[in-house]
Design a protein that fits this description.
Layout lengths: L25 E11 L10 E8 L4 E6 L10 E7 L2 E6 L2 H56 L1
Parallel strand pairs: 3-5
Antiparallel strand pairs: 1-2, 1-4, 2-3, 4-5
């Protein structure tokens, strides 16, 4: 190997170039995991870490938020928390409740729109009746003044 004194390797930032938006987060399979009882500075012990294979085939290292030891090849849900990927036990009912909540928000939004339109229509009718009553009152006062 030849020594090259002008060799200047390109240094990369320690932050990964992976954008969470490029991954299909949500559900994955736990490939392997470990618990660090003396984690690096800045992390609270015990720190659970695991490799999770996502639906698109990508394998990521994620922090675990599990109350008990997970089984290998178990389904987990994956999300982003701050600068870290996090895996939790997969709860199929969570997705159903999210869908129900979405429908509820849609229905409430629709109902608010209908109720707002109905309220505005009622206000418009009331304003029209009041305007008509004032017009009639002016006409009556004119006829009374002309008749005197």
């Amino acid at each position: 190997m030849k020594f090259e004194p002008d060799y200047n390797p390109e240094l990369f930032s320690p932050k990964p170039f992976l954008e969470p938006s490029s991954l299909k987060l949500g559900r994955g399979k736990l490939v392997t995991w470990t618990v660090l009882h003396t984690p690096p500075e800045g992390f609270e012990p015990p720190l659970t870490l695991g490799y999770v294979q996502l639906a698109d085939g990508a394998v990521i290292l994620a922090h675990g938020e599990m109350e008990k030891n997970p089984a290998l090849d178990s389904k987990v849900s994956v999300d982003v928390a701050g600068e870290h990927f996090v895996f939790k036990p997969y709860d199929p009912t969570k997705r159903i409740w999210e869908q129900i909540d979405g429908v509820r928000k849609t229905v409430i939004g629709w109902w608010d729109a209908v109720e707002g339109a109905a309220t505005q229509a009622a206000r418009d009718r009331k304003a029209a009746k009041l305007k008509e009553a004032r017009r009639k009152k002016r006409e009556q006062s004119k006829t009374v003044q002309n008749g005197d």
